[in-house]
Design brief:
By secondary structure, the protein is mainly alpha-helical. It contains 4 helices and no strands. It starts with 5 loop residues before the first helix and ends with a helix. This is Negative regulator of flagellin synthesis.
């Protein structure tokens, strides 16, 4: 009677080695992929459309009016912009 069937052990080891090789190959392929960011044409246009000094001045005026409690939201404009964004 044979207790240790070495042929089965070798087949198992060959299978495990093949699995490890496949996993390492997959990890190497995943490591070579890169994340990326794309900026839409609309975002590029918006970023170039205004002088930074003018924007900073306008932003400061808005901050002051919020702190003073005098900032008013134009609900009509908000509704129009929401409608435009949903209809695209």
């Amino acid at each position: 009677m044979k207790i240790n069937d070495t042929a089965r052990i070798y087949r198992l080891q060959a299978y495990q080695n093949a699995e490890r090789a496949r996993e390492e190959k997959g990890a190497a392929a995943a490591g070579s992929q890169r994340d990326g960011v794309t900026i839409s044409p609309l975002a590029l246009e918006m970023s170039r459309g205004e002088d930074p000094a003018v924007r900073a001045e306008r932003l400061e005026a808005v901050k002051e009016s919020i702190q003073n409690g005098t900032y008013q939201v134009d609900l009509q404009k908000v509704a129009e912009k929401l409608y435009e964004s949903f209809m695209r």
